[in-house]
Specification:
Elements: E1 4-6, E2 9-11, H1 21-24, H2 71-88, H3 123-132
Antiparallel strand pairs: 1-2
Helix pairs in contact: 2-3
The structure holds protoporphyrin IX containing FE.
């Protein structure tokens, strides 16, 4: 470890640096309306953005030598889990109110308010509940 200078900032040797991915992902110069949930931006304006550490504006799995080792696994499991949930459940809120997507204040991000969904009666949905050991209460 040596002293170095990054973008004009002097970083003494042995400094522990934290990269604030949250701020990077809310940079308005890159992301228009950064607080809006607009997944379609990844099909249009940002369709060429790579999440595997090549675009420093978009680093959910970080970048470089210490980036996430589970990135390939995570991307596949996330897709499978989401697809299974959508396939197995009719997703609705209690009285069709919109979902509160505000974030809780933690080191890692959690929803500020719990997501309450109505259970589906499909066999696939029940099997999924059992496999994932979800507790959806009695709704
Ligand atoms: C959506 C899911 C995931 C996200 C967003 C994610 C994100 C990250 C990030 C940002 C880091 C870097 C932390 C740092 O800078 O110190 C990291 C590290 C790491 N992740 Fe993940 N991760 C995910 C899932 C997984 C999974 C499923 C595995 C394993 C199967 C995994 C294994 C690791 C390991 C071993 C490291 C440490 C790498 C190192 O320090 O050399 N991650 N992850």
């Amino acid at each position: 470890m040596e002293n170095c200078t990054v973008s004009g900032y002097h970083i003494p040797a042995q400094t522990r640096l934290f990269v604030n991915l949250w701020m990077i992902h809310l940079e308005p110069a890159v992301w228009s309306d950064p607080c809006e949930f607009q997944p379609e931006r990844f099909l249009t304006t940002h369709k060429d953005f790579d999440v595997r550490g090549q675009n420093f504006e978009y680093m959910s799995f970080s970048s470089g030598r210490r980036m996430c080792h589970g990135v390939s696994f995570a991307l596949q499991v996330l897709q499978l889990t989401l697809a299974s949930l959508i396939h197995g459940f009719d997703l609705e809120t209690q009285s069709n109110e919109s979902v509160d997507t505000s974030e809780g204040k933690r080191l890692t991000f959690v929803k500020a308010s719990p997501l309450e969904l109505l259970k589906s009666s499909s066999l696939h949905g029940f099997l999924l509940l059992y496999m994932l050991k979800f507790d959806f209460g009695d709704s």
